[in-house]
Amino acid sequence: MVNIDQRLARPNAEIAFADTGGEGPAVVFVHGAGMDHTMFDTQVKALTAGGYRVVTWDLRGHGESLLAPGARFAAADALDDLAALLRECEIDRAVLVGHSLGGNLAQAFVRTHGKRAAGLIVLDSTWNTGPLSGFERFALRLAAPSLAMIPARTLPGLMARASAVTPSAIARTEAIFARMPKRIFLDVWRATVSFVEPDPDYRCPVPLALVRGARDRTGNIATAMPRWAQAEGITEHVIPDAGHILTWDAPEATSRTLLRILDQWDLGNPAPERGE
Fold it and tell me: What is residue 19's predicted lDDT score, i.e. its pLDDT?
């Protein structure tokens, strides 16, 4: 497990993070809603061994990062936290690897801070600017109210079974979801939805890769990510036998895919060592 032993003071929050340092290209992981940095443990190890400088952190109110009493999770605050984290680590440009909510946040960061991104890898996340059908708009509006009706004691298990497919990944996901109070989880969910702003003419200004678990059935991801790949003119990477939490369902396959993508981008890694 990666030890995130550094702290960054932020308004109404304290962000826990780790930075492996080194001279390799910087890669920053951004985890999904209700999760924390541990979802990337296998990938952090693989990329570090491959010569990359890796930064991993917990979003405010998640894992070891604190949210001040009474403060609410908001998308704008999370975006500002990511910008502050790059400044704290003195990283001018980084490849952002975002999962689910982290993918939405990374997309929004690239759109507003494009010069700070060397590339964007999105894992099992909704396309922020993609067109939505009438049904998708309806489902998006209904998501948070529907979750609010589910009893707090059953919500973690329900969400875990919808997110992961292997027994071990389901158990780990339920345990980590259970640590977050329901009221914060609902705020995080609302923040996720707030990132969706259809703008069909927008195209990503930096190298982009899309990675999805073949058995991801959450939201519209299974249909939106292929449409997104087609619109951007890129090939979608689909991980077999993985659901929404692909980093735990298929950790080694996900790591190999990330390394292949980063290698193809030729980011100037000085001394790559591949352990496939």
Answer: 97
Number of helices and strands in the chain (H, E): 10, 9
Alpha helices (H) in the chain, listed in sequence order: 41-49, 75-88, 101-112, 134-148, 155-163, 167-177, 182-194, 221-232, 246-249, 251-265
For Cα atoms 110, 5, 76, give the angle at the middle one, nearest 5 degrees: 30
| pLDDT, tens digit (0-9, with 9 covering 90-100), for 140-162 | 777 778 888 888 889 999 999 99
The Cα 116–Cα 101 span in angstroms is 19
Residue 68 CB neighbour total at 10 angstroms: 13
pLDDT in tens, 28-62: 999 999 999 999 999 999 999 999 999 999 999 99
Q: Pairing state of beta strands 117-123 and 237-239?
A: unpaired
Collapse the DSSP code of 70 into the 3-class scheme (helix H, G, I; strand E, B; otherwise coil) and give the result. coil
The structural domains of the chain, ordered by start, are 6-151+184-264 (3.40.50.1820)
Backbone angles phi, psi at 152, to 5 degrees: -60, -35
How far apart CA 209 and CA 67 sit, in angstroms, is: 32
The model scores a pTM over 0.70 = yes
**H-helix or E-strand spanning residue 26:** strand 26-30
Output the six-digit token pair for 5. Answer: 């032993």
Residue length of the chain: 276
